[in-house]
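JOB MANIFEST
job_type = single_chain_structure
chain_count = 1
residues = 299
[input]
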Amino acid sequence: MSATLTGIAFNLCALVIFVTMDTLGKLLVAHYPVPQVVFVRFCCHILFVALAIRLLTGSLPWRSRAPWLQLGRGLCLILASLLFVGALAYLPLADATTVGFAAPLLTVLLAAFWLREKVGWRRWAGVGIGLVGVLVALRPPFLTGGPLPHWAILLPLGNAVAYSIYQIMTRRLAALDDPRTTMLHTGLAGVVVLALVQPFVWQAPGTAGPLPAAWVWTGLLALGALSAAGHGMLVLAFTRAQASLLAPLTYTQLLWAMIASAVVFGQRPDGITLSGAAIIACGGLLVAWPSRRKGGSTG
């Protein structure tokens, strides 16, 4: 029980860190290009992760048995990050987070059709309910009776698609590569690609917005540190508690995002966002809830 409670604590801390990272990212992209912010974040992330693995294990196992799969996974993660951070430049944090939570539902769909995993009726029902919540959060005029939503609402939806593919590739790689190898490759391919566009988008810190260069650099470096810390805590959480127990806690991130959106940016979520978030959370909980099979096994 002590290990389980520790795992829950690590998981909750990771989710708070992710919201903190998104909040900081939204502040930065108000003045600096999205590719620049994502590039620095992942550069720092890779450095922090490599340093931690080296200190803890004494080696850096870079070589992969499936380099092309690692490449595709890395590109999907960078694409997901670009889309989500780009959405933060236009949308309230709570709205972008709510729509982005379509990712776990889409992962179930891809797992069923791509990995041929067996998905029971309860999970299919949860996916259906969750996708209804996503539709509500997208604010279509035929539901809200209002004007067309901002075009940027499609960006977190694209983020959800890219991230769900990233998760499926991560599952495939779990049977092929050392987990340390996969952690080291996370974001590496995307950083190489983003490095090619930096000469065209780079804006010197301190030249835009009210903050001096030192503060901007601190924020950019903090993004990488928070990313590494958050993902590291998730790894620690899943080594101490069951995935079926931790998965429902993911939806507390919606609550923290709404609080951050209101406190930091003064953007309070409206009834449509709250309704969509509640429906998505209900669907997600139904997907994550383990079903009991004969003999007491959980599936």
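[summary]
The chain has a mean pLDDT of 86.
The radius of gyration is 19 Å.
exit_status = 0
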